[in-house]
Amino acid sequence: MKTEMVTIGWGHLAMLLPLVLVVIGILRRWGVESANAPYAIARMLVQLTLIGYLLIFIFSARSG
User: Fold this and answer.
1) Which one, of 44, 43, 41, lies nearest residue 18 by Cα?
2) Rg (alpha carbons) of the chain, rounded to whole number
3) How far apart are CA 35 and CA 33, in angstroms?
4) Are 55 and 7 a contacting pair, CB within 8 Å?
5) Contact, 34 vs 24, CB < 8 A?
6) pLDDT at 50 over 90
7) DSSP 62
8) Which candidate, 27, 20, 15, places its Cα nearest to that of 41?
9) Rounded distance, CA 17 to CA 39, Å?
10) What are 28-48's pLDDT values in tens digits?
11) Which of 12, 43, 59, 61 suits 5 as a labelling partner, its CA being 20 to 30 A distant?
12) What is the mean pLDDT of the segment spanning 6-32?
């Protein structure tokens, strides 16, 4: 069974920026400490990107 890998471009990720800003706005309105939110979102994006590349490397490696 051959599956196709779907790539998500940086432009598509950038389209999510308004949603991120809405979430940060909701956190501020609720009185939750939102100063760490941009840092946490950036860290999450970097971690998921690195794990994605690692998985691509693992699954594309030929055994034997």
Assistant:
1) 41
2) 17
3) 6
4) no
5) yes
6) yes
7) P
8) 20
9) 14
10) 888 887 788 888 888 988 999
11) 43
12) 86
Structure tokens at 7: 């790539």
Tell me which residue has tokens 């794990």. Answer: 51
The CA distance from 13 to 2, in Å, is 26
Q: To which residue do tokens 């994006």 refer?
A: 45
The helix or strand, by DSSP H or E, that contains position 44, with its residue range, turns out to be: helix 37-60
Query: Rounded to an integer, what distance in angstroms lies between the CA atom of residue 15 and that of residue 37?
Result: 18
DSSP 30: T
Kindly give, in sequence order, each residue whose CB lies less than 8 Å from that of residue 44, ignoring residues fewer than 6 positions away: none
Residue that has been written with the tokens 């994605």 in this structure: 52
Provide the pLDDT for residue 46: 92
